[in-house]
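The instructor's notes for this session suggest beginning with a concrete chain rather than abstract definitions. Hand out the sequence below and ask the class to guess, before any prediction is shown, which regions might be ordered.
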Amino acid sequence: MRLELLCALIPLFPLIGFIINGIGFRRVPKGLAGGIATVAVLASFVLSVILFRSFVGNENQAGAAEPIVATLFDWISVGDLHINFSFQIDQLSLLMLLIVTGVGSLIHVYSIGYMSHDEGFGKFMAFLNLFIFFMLLLVMGSNYVIMFIGWEGVGLCSYLLIGFWNRNISFNNAARKAFVMNRIGDLGFLLGIFMLINTFGSVEYLDIFKQATSLEIGDKTILAITLLLFVGAMGKSAQIPLYTWLPDAMAGPTPVSALIHAATMVTAGIYMVVRSNVLYTLSPLTLEIIGGIAIATALLAATIGLLQNDIKKVLAYSTVSQLGYMFLGLSATAYTAGMFHVITHAFFKALLFLGAGSVIHAMSDEQDIRKMGGLRKVLPITFITFLIGTIAISGLPPFAGFFSKDEILAHVFEHNKLLWALGVFGSGLTSFYMFRLLFLTFFGEFRGTEEQRHHLHESPSTMTIPLIVLAILSAAGGALNLPGDGWLSHFMAPLFEGSRQVSPEAFAESTVESSTEYILMAVSAGVALLALIIAYVMYISRQAIPASESTERSLPEQVVYNKYYVDELYEAIIIRPIRGLGDVLYSFGEGLVDGIVNGIAWLVQKSSAQLRLLQSGSIGFYVLAMVVSIVVIFALRFFIRL
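After discussion, reveal the predicted structure:
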């Protein structure tokens, strides 16, 4: 199969699924709609595997396959700027293809069971397909313009899916909030693309990165470009200050949370930085800024997660925190480690969200963990898989999260000891709030209503099979990049040749001794284990239950419980002033514009009323007017010539 055709078919199948279900969602039966949507993404996954094997099979003698650019057609030509609609196939795009289509296929299967009773099932599956299409454009494009199309497209799909149950006003507000905050970040991203065009005369990755290797580290233009691009990543990947949309996005159906806000869309910012690694390596100041924002985001979100009682909100703040860890790794030029955590996070966070959906499904849409308890007896598959996901995200060996998080922390230790210490502390917080969630949900006595107890049941196979597959990946995913010379490090190495060229010291061999590495691993795992024990003592031994909403709380607890009042702060210093300014401008504009328009209308009306009196019907007056007019014209001509 020709490369261009293969690359075109991968995003084309989900687009076809969207068109069929989107046009006929009122007529296509639910079973057929679910099948079409799932087969479309599954076909893309199969083609991605074929493309992966073909690419790996083309490795040269040095053990690395060269990037392949498949041009579908010439697109934009303006002066010297030529932009092709083309796809770039290399190590990074292939990894993202497998994640998006693989995890996406499992979530589509899960959605068939989870959304089967929803009236808008066909429309929901169509939106999922559309999201996969745009996400594939984002990761396959060979230039920043195609990336931006996918970037905007997944933002649109996020809006549609978060507000899918649009009869609820709060859900609509959450969707609007996500859309607006992403647009703020996207403005920075777009300005960064304009600066790339102005600086390099191209938007193609290969052209830009080749030219960038001739620049000096610390170049002011590259600093501006990387900061603007990172503003886009802050919005899409929920970093301070553009993170508050992500927890509110839990208003959407649970499969949406798993697909968009755990495995794919929110990692777009990580993908963009890894893709642009040459530019970021050239700008150490940008990396320092990213590191500061990343650790602040990780700790802020982790502390908020300690007191949340909505099962999906806990996972949402966990996602924000884990994204902070990924950016923390990137700030230490640990691009492979950051990408490794993207992969493992896709496994265990999708698993946790889908497990939460299984719990919500069994609890008749109840999401408050204070009203759960003892569910491991009636939801055995959900419990075991959720336990595996919890161990993985907590960084406990030997599951996937331990290896990816440990690799990030090891690189950060070399780069900055303070950031490492804060990272280990954040890892302990993650372990505590995740086991708190596990213990309150699945252990102890059931705290729900009798009606809920009566309806408790394990989810259907369409929901449990994806849980089992993701649990296996969450347990074994660490094998992708074991300490030492892991497969992933070897596979991704060619992506960073440009960065090695501009800053060899950033990719030099680690100076940390093996004994120190083992100590660091033990410290990280020990802190996570200690947090687990504390959570066990509090919620199993002492059977503590989180306080109700009306309970009086201490000031620090109240601040954390109310998420540091960040939303209220934004409301006070940004939203209200802008709305007030808008009202003032509206009032001023309404008075000024209406005054001008009404004044002109009044003038025309009055003048026309007077002018119409000249039409008297008297022939003598008309002859006189004609003669006077001729005299005036001749007089004007005479004076002009003088």
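Then share the key points. The mean pLDDT is 90. The chain is about 70% helix and 5% strand.
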